Amino acid sequence: MRRALERKVTAWARGAAKAGSDAESVEGDVARCKEAIGEILARFREVGLLNDAAFAEARARGLSRAGRSKRAIAAHLAQKGVAESIVREVLPDDELGAALVFARKRRIGPFAREAETREEQQKALAAMARAGFGWSICERALRMDRERADELLNGRRDL
Predict the structure, then answer these.
(1) Contact indicator for 38, 1 with CB cutoff of 8 Å
(2) What single-letter DSSP state applies at residue 116?
(3) What is the pLDDT of residues 9-47, one digit of tens each?
(4) How far is CA 56 from each of CA 39, 91, 146, 157, rounded to the nearest angstrom?
(5) End-to-end alpha-carbon separation of the chain, Å?
(6) What is the model's pTM?
(7) What are the helix and strand counts (H, E) for the chain?
(8) For the chain, is the Cβ count within 10 Å smaller at the N or the C terminus?
């Protein structure tokens, strides 16, 4: 949130400079705005509008439902500025379920329309690895039969 507010202030300053505003006045306004950001964030936390743990938990759950790996979720949350300790707490445990969602979206592994050739299996494995899934999870997901995969996906609590 801090970075977003600072970007807005910087963008405003650029616009004001292009519009021909006095440079000293703009610099003073920017300095006051950047000082106020800390106070704004403190007040947001105080009233409950800014809660990194709640944000991270909701985002992690949604990304897992969308078929993202733990690594991808952790990277996403880190990029959003969530503390590493919070990220570790909110990462979902159901990596296999996320891998199956990924496979279903890509129509690979148990969700392939027809039997995959060896080359297609390698491509599927590579796609899952690039998405951040570990070797053992990829193997389990790609070698699972369709009935078991559907059963696991239907049993996921977070879908």
Answers:
(1) no
(2) P
(3) 999 999 998 888 888 898 999 999 999 999 999 999 889
(4) 22, 9, 32, 18
(5) 29
(6) 0.74
(7) 9, 0
(8) C
